[in-house]
Amino acid sequence: MAEDDDRLPQQARSLETLSRLLDAAESLLSEGGVDAATVPAIAAKAGVSIGAVYRRFVDKDALLHAACQRFLERADARAAMTIAHAKKLAAFPPAALVRQMVAGIIFGYHLHGGIIRAIHQLADEQPDSAFRRFLDARQMRTVAQTLEVLKPCLPHIRHPDPELAIRTSILVVGWTMQKKLMLAPRKLPGPTGVSEEALEEELSRMVLTYLGFG
Question: Is the peptide bond before 189 cis (omega within 30 degrees of 0)?
């Protein structure tokens, strides 16, 4: 029993160190991207030795992938909470629900733009990796979750295949924001001449017109 009692504090300390490493990696990815998230920088930010990093992860990629995976799993948990409250959203007019969808996707990219950009960079660098497959599966779940929230809109959509139309709309908005992050990480307008507010409004208008709401 004494041996078990000794092991529990060690396990707790190990989990705390792991959490600090993942927090540090996520913070550096968010603030400075993949180039900033070096092993020495992560170790320093987490307050541990470089050796402590390599005792838990075989290399930097394994640590960064773990940090990104934890971020995405937490995002999935938040999405699940949204779906749990989807019945409340059913009272919204269909066009308002669609606007909420577009605004929600854009807000997510603005709020977490740094780490989302880093996640896609890491996945693109290793197109055949388990991390790439994890990200693809997660994106499929996100589309399915968003479709679940927008189900009340289906009878009102003037398109031969309403579900396909919503899936396409989700992808177009997501891909637009992803491309914006990769090519123009700073806020618009910059050289585009399109403000952040105008981008959201025009994406909403495009989606609503495509779905047949106006």
Answer: yes
